[in-house]
Design a protein that fits this description.
- The complex is a heterodimer.
- Chain A has six helices and nine strands; from the N terminus they run ααβββββαβββααβα.
- Helix content of chain A is 39%, strand content 22%.
- Chain A has one domain.
- Chain A is an alpha+beta fold.
- In chain A, helix 1 packs across helix 2.
- Chain A is globular.
- The longest helix of chain A is centred in the first third of the chain and has 45 residues.
- The N and C termini of chain A lie far apart (83 Å).
- Chain B is mostly helical.
- Chain B has one domain.
- Chain B has a two-stranded antiparallel ribbon.
- In chain B, helix 8 crosses helix 10.
- The longest helix of chain B has 31 residues.
- Classes of the chains: A alpha+beta, B mainly alpha.
- At the A-B interface, helix 1 of A face helix 4 of B.
Amino acid sequence: MQLKGNTYTFVFALIVCVICSFSLAAVSRSLKPRQELNFAMDIKKNILKAVGLQEPISPQATPHDILEIYNQKIRELVIDAQGNVVADMKPEMIKAGDAYYPLYVYQEGETVLAYAFPMVGHGLWSTLYGYLALEPDGVTIRGITYYKHGETPGLGAEIEKDWFQNNFKGKTIWDIKANELRPITVAKGPVSNSVQDEYKAGFYVDGISGATLTGKGVTEMIARELKKYDPYFSKIRKI
Amino acid sequence: MPAILTKKDRKIIKDALWDSNPITFQVLGICSALAVTVQLKTALVMCAALTFVVAMSNTVISLLRNYIPSKIRIIIELTVISSLVICADQFLKAYMYDVSKQLSVFVGLIITNCIVMGRAEAYAMANPPFKSFLDGLGNGLGYSAVLILVAVFREILGSGTLLGLHVIPEFLYQHGYVNCGVMVLAPGAFFLLGAIIWVQRALSGYTEAN
């Protein structure tokens, strides 16, 4: 066959493509179990971070240590849309589209210290994945984390930074004056620029300059997820 | 130097590292040089990934060079390069998950790094496999040398740490020393890169042709 012929070109392209795809499939297949383990570990680490452990995990902790802490302190529950705990169900058994929601309870011994649940929503470019943790009173935010997103580094990606996440800590999601649920809103830039009233400002956190749409996504996602879990929290809420 | 490397072979590496360094001489691959150099750790992993990709792609393309139909040579080069990049990315996700999360899209973007494509097209298509491998290795290391230099300065000046360990003594902070914020941002990398290119070109005696 001639090196310039069309048949040769097609055959050559085909062979290269087949070899490349087979070797990629082999690499992907053989590394998959490890990757999935890492991914599952990362989620557990984020749940532990959101609930604000009394003794934070040391940076040197091995995956094994993290798993042990997780198994010791986190109880996995599943609740339904009416806020009842579904017995015999584990979060990983929930299928997409089911009206069941996972709930992670942080306990030290018998005392419940926090409830955490996953949040999913849209930012500017990407889907944001994170966890929100409430104190046992069901109204105070204990922590928030984001573990997966594809926002712009330095702008939207700041949602994974401590300064942003720490702003949520201690805020309440319950408007005592109106006696209703009032999720946190991410302001456009610093809160003091837009909200003057001190009581109202309690329901806002500082936004990220240059990432208004990511902030909007965060606001929407918190509101939606809190509504989902409200039937459960309204049963345990102490106000 | 081991005997397997002849004087010529050594010259291939030396050229790529110094006289025609991909960043300071050819000014290629700047995008990733800015993006991953805030910390030394990410820079090191990025350098290893790029060096692997450019050395291997050069070797593979050089092996195929007499069979690749010239009409589709660019797309064949890209197929080989992207396969290698995906391998590197998968490997990082499996064994260095935290770093791979930090590097996010930038590992995948090695595919579009001009150094890899440029060496495949300019060198591997015309030279035998071993030489091409050395050329790829040299270019990868030349890129790494500059990236590591930038990252060391950026991490020390910008965050006061090196590989995550504190290197600026505490008493300096107590006497009013403040980390240099601009080093964390992209402009800091531009300033450093400019300075490095200047110094390197002054030392190697390179001037732009008129």
